[in-house]
Task: inverse folding
């Protein structure tokens, strides 16, 4: 999706502003919001990719005006309603109006340690990798209206395969409910000038993690 | 947590911000419907506030500075190397350590969202998730470094890693000069969170004194 979330290379956002002695959370609701989102993911309400697509589905003006955990709260609200896990009327009321747990699962304290480690996204490959380290590739010029992990700035650009990271769950597929559809994942390295033109910093190199369907061979 | 807000305090409701009310409503509904347990959320928050943080990454970096065999494993398979230290219960797959050298400086970003190696660095700071960082890191990394007060020689290559998949990156910075003979604990005190993201450099012995 060519959305506002795809920020690489955009101008006008100003300086980075590090905060001295930044707290882990700036308000207690941020921690509750983080934990709620993690909890719903842990009981299988949605996958990480579906969750990201949920953030990207926020209108651009809302996305830009909301804090990080503010976006997480909106995403949570939208997704529990869209998936019928709770009703908009219940959230508005602040209480359950019907007793139902559509997942028949509950996150309990004993489950917490496993929620703190990231999952494994590597899968058994169904075919040999198409590319090897050192191969020259060109990223595809694609603009799917659905979730993708190929950023705009790195589309239709020439790069080199720097590493093969294994065969991984394919976000573009999972996010639309089409299954894991595992694909080979590569680190693809680009010269700054290939991405940003002649005025690029000549000492810059940028890599992305690119799934095989994003890539074509290049001479 | 002492201040978590699902209990039935009637007094301060009017002081709650819109977000507090909104998140509280969600938590109440999801708990009443049986998806989550309040105490489980408390345990998750407590872990992120007290146990999971950049001190883990700092210990990994210090170990790599003093133990060449460990450093070799770290650069080959960071998940395996970090797991071997036993600092955290389970390290997620696909962790990758990238090494700074006199010729190359590495910087980590996630332009599409905010992917970050939570297990070794804790939750990301606000700036890492902000539009200014996500937009500029890939085309003006020296400008970004300037925002952090860091200036690198013009002949140093800047290598930016955009975290666009479930691989996660941590920078192995260069060991500061004049730290010969220091043990891991002293060295770890020089390792800042930002130097493991690539927006900073480790403290010097003078800074740490």
Result:
């Amino acid at each position: 999706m060519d959305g506002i979330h795809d920020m690489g290379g955009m101008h006008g956002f100003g300086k980075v502003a590090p905060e001295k002695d930044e707290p882990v959370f700036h308000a207690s609701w941020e921690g509750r919001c983080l934990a709620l989102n993690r909890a719903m993911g842990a009981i299988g309400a949605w996958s990480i990719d579906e969750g990201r697509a949920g953030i990207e589905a926020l209108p651009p003006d809302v996305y830009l005006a909301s804090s990080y955990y503010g976006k997480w709260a909106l995403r949570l609200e939208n997704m529990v309603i869209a998936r019928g896990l709770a009703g908009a009327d219940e959230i508005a009321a602040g209480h359950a109006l019907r007793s139902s747990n559509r997942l028949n699962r509950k996150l309990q304290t004993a489950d917490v340690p496993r929620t703190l480690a990231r999952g494994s996204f590597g899968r058994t490959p169904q075919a040999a990798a198409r590319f090897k380290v050192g191969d020259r590739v060109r990223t595809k010029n694609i603009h799917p209206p659905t979730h993708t992990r190929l950023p705009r700035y790195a589309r239709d650009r020439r790069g080199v395969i720097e590493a093969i990271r294994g065969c991984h769950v394919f976000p573009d597929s999972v996010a639309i409910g089409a299954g894991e559809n595992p694909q080979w994942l590569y680190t693809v390295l680009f010269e700054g000038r290939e991405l940003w033109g002649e005025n690029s910093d000549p000492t810059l190199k940028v890599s992305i993690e690119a799934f095989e369907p994003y890539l074509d061979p290049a001479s | 947590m002492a201040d978590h807000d699902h209990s039935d305090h009637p007094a301060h409701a009017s002081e709650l911000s819109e977000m507090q009310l909104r998140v509280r409503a969600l938590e109440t509904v999801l708990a009443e419907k049986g998806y989550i347990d309040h105490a489980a959320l408390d345990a998750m928050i407590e872990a992120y506030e007290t146990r999971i943080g950049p001190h883990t990454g700092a210990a990994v970096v210090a170990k790599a500075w003093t133990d060449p065999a460990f450093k070799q494993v770290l650069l080959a398979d960071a998940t395996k190397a970090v797991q071997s230290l036993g600092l955290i219960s389970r390290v997620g797959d696909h962790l990758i350590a990238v090494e700074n050298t006199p010729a190359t400086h590495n910087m980590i970003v996630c332009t599409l969202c905010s992917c970050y190696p939570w297990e070794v660095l804790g939750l990301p700071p606000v700036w890492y998730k902000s539009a200014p960082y996500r937009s500029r890191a890939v085309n003006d990394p020296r400008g970004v470094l300037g925002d952090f007060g860091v200036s690198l020689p013009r002949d140093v290559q800047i290598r930016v890693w955009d975290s666009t998949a479930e691989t996660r990156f941590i920078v192995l910075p260069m060991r500061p000069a004049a730290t010969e003979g220091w043990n891991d604990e002293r060295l770890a005190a020089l390792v800042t969170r930002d130097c493991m993201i690539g927006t900073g450099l480790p403290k010097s012995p003078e800074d740490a004194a």
